[in-house]
Amino acid sequence: MKKPGKSWQESAWRRRALGLLRQDGLMRGNVSVRRRVCGKSTCHCAQGERHEAMYVVYREAGRTVQLYVPKEFEQRVRRWVKRYGEARELLDKLSGVYEAKVRRRRD
Ligand SMILES: [Zn+2]
């Protein structure tokens, strides 16, 4: 009789998730780049050439949070957000494996 165990697919998802978690940094949310005016009447943005500012947008306790990202963090935050998204996708796939077990009533 075949022993119950992790499928090849499940093991691959777990390995990839662990690989992501071993790397530095992850952050939930979506990156959003906005163009804004700073309010100084002499600044170029007053002539229509607006400043670009990056935010990470996510939901928390039913509210939308917009976290401003300082310039020096932009590249890192892009990597962190991408990594979180990939890890999240893998966790959702793994969750699906266990949801299926409950539906089949067999572990
Ligand atoms: Zn300005």
Short descriptors:
3-stranded antiparallel sheet; binds zinc ion; 107 residues; alpha+beta; 3 strands; 43% helix; elongated; single chain
Structural commentary:
It is a single chain. With 107 residues, the chain is α+β, with helices and mostly antiparallel strands. It has one domain (25-104). Helices cover 43% and strands 22% of the residues. It has 2 helices and 3 strands, in the order αβββα. The protein has helices spanning 8-22, 74-104; strands spanning 30-36, 51-60, 63-69. The protein has a 3-stranded antiparallel beta sheet, covered by helices on one side. A hairpin with a 2-residue loop joins strand 2 and strand 3. It is elongated. The model has no long low-confidence stretch (mean pLDDT 94).
Poorly predicted residue ranges: none
Quote the beta fraction: 15-25%
Count of all domains: 1
| Cofactors, ions and other ligands in the entry | zinc ion
* Helix content range: 40-55%
Distance between the termini: 15 Å
Mean pLDDT: 94
Topology:
Layout: H1 8-22, E1 30-36, E2 51-60, E3 63-69, H2 74-104
Antiparallel strand pairs: 1-2, 2-3
Helix pairs in contact: 1-2
This protein binds zinc ion.
Residues 37-38, 40, 43, 45, 51 line the site of zinc ion.
Summarize the structure.
The chain is an alpha+beta fold and 107 residues long. It has 2 helices and 3 strands.
